[in-house]
Amino acid sequence: MSFELYADSLFTSPYALSVFVALTEKGLPFSVKTVDLGSGEQRQAAFADRALTARVPALVEGEGHEQFVLTESSAITEYLDESFPPPEYIALYPQDRRQRALARQIQAWVRSDLVPVRVERDTETVFFKKPCAPLSETAQTAAAKLVHVAERLVQGPQHLFGDWSIADTDLAIMLSRLVRNGDEVPVKLREYVDFQWQRPSVQAWLARHQPG
Protein backbone atom coordinates (compact mmCIF):
# COMPACT_ATOMS: atom_id res chain seq x y z
CA MET A 1 0.00 0.00 0.00
CA SER A 2 1.34 3.43 -0.89
CA PHE A 3 0.05 6.92 -0.22
CA GLU A 4 -0.06 10.32 -1.87
CA LEU A 5 0.34 13.35 0.35
CA TYR A 6 -0.92 16.67 -0.98
CA ALA A 7 0.95 19.61 0.52
CA ASP A 8 1.18 23.30 -0.25
CA SER A 9 3.58 24.17 -3.07
CA LEU A 10 5.81 26.31 -0.81
CA PHE A 11 6.05 23.57 1.83
CA THR A 12 5.17 26.01 4.61
CA SER A 13 2.06 24.32 5.99
CA PRO A 14 2.77 23.13 9.54
CA TYR A 15 -0.08 20.67 9.17
CA ALA A 16 1.30 19.15 5.98
CA LEU A 17 4.65 18.91 7.77
CA SER A 18 2.94 17.03 10.61
CA VAL A 19 1.54 14.41 8.23
CA PHE A 20 4.82 14.20 6.29
CA VAL A 21 6.61 13.50 9.58
CA ALA A 22 4.01 10.89 10.55
CA LEU A 23 4.35 9.01 7.26
CA THR A 24 8.14 9.19 7.42
CA GLU A 25 8.27 8.00 11.02
CA LYS A 26 5.99 5.07 10.18
CA GLY A 27 8.25 4.13 7.28
CA LEU A 28 5.30 4.07 4.88
CA PRO A 29 5.87 4.52 1.14
CA PHE A 30 4.40 7.78 -0.10
CA SER A 31 4.78 10.41 -2.78
CA VAL A 32 4.25 14.13 -2.38
CA LYS A 33 2.12 16.25 -4.69
CA THR A 34 1.67 19.98 -4.31
CA VAL A 35 -1.25 22.38 -4.44
CA ASP A 36 -0.72 26.07 -5.23
CA LEU A 37 -2.73 27.76 -2.51
CA GLY A 38 -1.84 31.21 -3.80
CA SER A 39 -3.67 30.61 -7.07
CA GLY A 40 -6.64 28.96 -5.38
CA GLU A 41 -5.87 25.54 -6.84
CA GLN A 42 -7.33 23.94 -3.71
CA ARG A 43 -10.77 25.23 -4.72
CA GLN A 44 -10.63 23.81 -8.23
CA ALA A 45 -12.59 20.66 -8.99
CA ALA A 46 -9.54 18.48 -9.62
CA PHE A 47 -8.61 18.77 -5.94
CA ALA A 48 -11.82 19.89 -4.19
CA ASP A 49 -13.88 17.02 -5.60
CA ARG A 50 -11.50 14.55 -3.95
CA ALA A 51 -10.55 16.34 -0.74
CA LEU A 52 -13.75 16.86 1.24
CA THR A 53 -12.68 20.06 3.00
CA ALA A 54 -10.63 21.37 0.04
CA ARG A 55 -7.61 21.93 2.26
CA VAL A 56 -4.08 20.63 2.61
CA PRO A 57 -2.83 18.30 3.75
CA ALA A 58 -4.82 15.62 2.02
CA LEU A 59 -3.85 11.96 2.19
CA VAL A 60 -4.83 9.60 -0.62
CA GLU A 61 -4.74 5.86 0.01
CA GLY A 62 -5.38 3.25 -2.68
CA GLU A 63 -6.65 3.59 -6.21
CA GLY A 64 -9.90 3.52 -8.16
CA HIS A 65 -13.05 2.57 -6.30
CA GLU A 66 -10.97 1.57 -3.27
CA GLN A 67 -9.41 5.02 -2.97
CA PHE A 68 -9.74 6.74 0.39
CA VAL A 69 -9.05 10.46 0.78
CA LEU A 70 -8.72 12.14 4.16
CA THR A 71 -8.01 15.75 5.13
CA GLU A 72 -7.29 17.55 8.42
CA SER A 73 -3.87 16.66 9.75
CA SER A 74 -4.73 15.37 13.22
CA ALA A 75 -7.42 13.11 11.74
CA ILE A 76 -4.80 11.79 9.32
CA THR A 77 -2.18 11.12 11.98
CA GLU A 78 -4.72 9.33 14.18
CA TYR A 79 -5.81 7.25 11.20
CA LEU A 80 -2.21 6.30 10.41
CA ASP A 81 -1.51 5.34 14.01
CA GLU A 82 -4.59 3.11 14.16
CA SER A 83 -3.93 1.57 10.74
CA PHE A 84 -0.23 0.90 11.31
CA PRO A 85 0.09 0.32 15.06
CA PRO A 86 3.10 -0.50 17.20
CA PRO A 87 5.12 -2.56 17.77
CA GLU A 88 5.55 -3.16 14.03
CA TYR A 89 5.43 0.59 13.42
CA ILE A 90 6.55 3.48 15.60
CA ALA A 91 3.77 4.97 17.72
CA LEU A 92 2.70 8.50 16.85
CA TYR A 93 0.79 8.87 20.12
CA PRO A 94 1.61 7.78 23.68
CA GLN A 95 0.33 4.36 24.69
CA ASP A 96 -0.98 5.61 28.03
CA ARG A 97 -4.57 6.75 27.43
CA ARG A 98 -4.25 9.95 29.48
CA GLN A 99 -1.01 10.94 27.83
CA ARG A 100 -2.57 10.14 24.46
CA ALA A 101 -5.49 12.42 25.32
CA LEU A 102 -3.04 15.16 26.31
CA ALA A 103 -1.21 14.78 23.01
CA ARG A 104 -4.49 15.20 21.14
CA GLN A 105 -5.29 18.19 23.33
CA ILE A 106 -2.02 19.83 22.29
CA GLN A 107 -2.75 19.15 18.63
CA ALA A 108 -6.24 20.63 18.86
CA TRP A 109 -5.03 23.66 20.80
CA VAL A 110 -2.24 24.74 18.44
CA ARG A 111 -4.66 24.42 15.52
CA SER A 112 -7.55 26.37 17.06
CA ASP A 113 -6.05 28.97 19.42
CA LEU A 114 -3.25 31.56 19.31
CA VAL A 115 -4.52 33.09 16.07
CA PRO A 116 -2.62 36.40 16.50
CA VAL A 117 0.67 34.49 16.74
CA ARG A 118 -0.19 32.41 13.69
CA VAL A 119 -1.05 35.58 11.74
CA GLU A 120 1.86 37.80 12.81
CA ARG A 121 4.42 34.98 12.82
CA ASP A 122 3.33 32.89 9.85
CA THR A 123 5.36 29.89 8.81
CA GLU A 124 7.26 31.82 6.14
CA THR A 125 9.02 33.22 9.22
CA VAL A 126 9.87 29.68 10.25
CA PHE A 127 11.02 28.30 6.91
CA PHE A 128 12.25 31.39 5.03
CA LYS A 129 13.20 33.69 7.94
CA LYS A 130 10.83 36.35 6.69
CA PRO A 131 11.36 39.49 8.81
CA CYS A 132 8.40 40.43 10.98
CA ALA A 133 7.26 43.57 12.74
CA PRO A 134 7.12 43.56 16.54
CA LEU A 135 4.15 41.68 17.92
CA SER A 136 0.98 43.66 18.47
CA GLU A 137 -0.42 43.85 21.99
CA THR A 138 -2.96 41.15 21.13
CA ALA A 139 -0.26 38.90 19.71
CA GLN A 140 1.97 39.50 22.73
CA THR A 141 -0.87 38.23 24.93
CA ALA A 142 -1.24 35.13 22.74
CA ALA A 143 2.52 34.56 22.72
CA ALA A 144 2.63 34.83 26.51
CA LYS A 145 -0.12 32.20 26.71
CA LEU A 146 1.82 29.92 24.35
CA VAL A 147 4.98 30.25 26.42
CA HIS A 148 3.10 29.76 29.70
CA VAL A 149 1.41 26.57 28.52
CA ALA A 150 4.57 25.24 26.85
CA GLU A 151 6.61 25.79 30.01
CA ARG A 152 4.13 23.65 31.94
CA LEU A 153 4.23 20.93 29.28
CA VAL A 154 7.95 20.82 28.49
CA GLN A 155 9.87 19.32 31.39
CA GLY A 156 13.14 18.80 29.54
CA PRO A 157 14.82 19.50 26.19
CA GLN A 158 13.60 16.29 24.57
CA HIS A 159 10.07 14.87 24.57
CA LEU A 160 6.77 15.69 26.24
CA PHE A 161 5.83 12.13 27.21
CA GLY A 162 9.14 10.32 27.62
CA ASP A 163 9.19 9.03 24.06
CA TRP A 164 8.65 11.13 20.95
CA SER A 165 5.09 11.73 19.77
CA ILE A 166 3.58 13.73 16.93
CA ALA A 167 2.51 16.31 19.53
CA ASP A 168 6.20 17.15 19.97
CA THR A 169 6.47 18.10 16.32
CA ASP A 170 3.27 20.14 16.40
CA LEU A 171 4.16 22.05 19.57
CA ALA A 172 7.70 22.69 18.35
CA ILE A 173 6.41 24.14 15.08
CA MET A 174 4.16 26.54 16.97
CA LEU A 175 6.96 27.62 19.30
CA SER A 176 9.34 28.02 16.36
CA ARG A 177 7.18 30.88 15.08
CA LEU A 178 8.62 32.87 17.97
CA VAL A 179 12.02 31.21 18.21
CA ARG A 180 12.94 31.56 14.52
CA ASN A 181 12.00 35.24 14.59
CA GLY A 182 14.16 35.95 17.64
CA ASP A 183 11.24 36.74 19.93
CA GLU A 184 11.85 36.28 23.63
CA VAL A 185 11.40 32.62 24.57
CA PRO A 186 12.82 30.84 27.63
CA VAL A 187 16.01 28.86 27.05
CA LYS A 188 14.31 25.57 27.97
CA LEU A 189 11.78 26.03 25.16
CA ARG A 190 14.42 27.09 22.66
CA GLU A 191 16.38 23.93 23.43
CA TYR A 192 13.21 21.88 23.03
CA VAL A 193 12.50 23.40 19.60
CA ASP A 194 16.10 22.87 18.48
CA PHE A 195 16.00 19.23 19.60
CA GLN A 196 12.76 18.55 17.72
CA TRP A 197 14.09 20.31 14.64
CA GLN A 198 16.99 17.85 14.43
CA ARG A 199 14.73 14.82 14.11
CA PRO A 200 15.49 13.15 10.73
CA SER A 201 11.85 13.20 9.63
CA VAL A 202 11.69 16.96 10.20
CA GLN A 203 15.02 17.46 8.48
CA ALA A 204 13.65 15.57 5.46
CA TRP A 205 10.88 18.16 5.19
CA LEU A 206 13.33 21.05 5.61
CA ALA A 207 15.47 19.61 2.82
CA ARG A 208 12.63 20.40 0.42
CA HIS A 209 13.39 24.09 0.94
CA GLN A 210 16.99 23.72 -0.16
CA PRO A 211 18.02 24.71 -3.72
CA GLY A 212 18.33 21.79 -6.10
UniProtKB/TrEMBL annotation:
The keyword Transferase applies. The keyword Transferase applies. It is an enzyme of class 2 (transferase). Keywords: Transferase. One of its GO terms (molecular function) is glutathione transferase activity. Residues 3-88 form the GST N-terminal domain. Pfam families: GST_C_4, GST_N_2. Its EC number is 2.5.1.18. This is Glutathione transferase. It comes from Duganella levis.
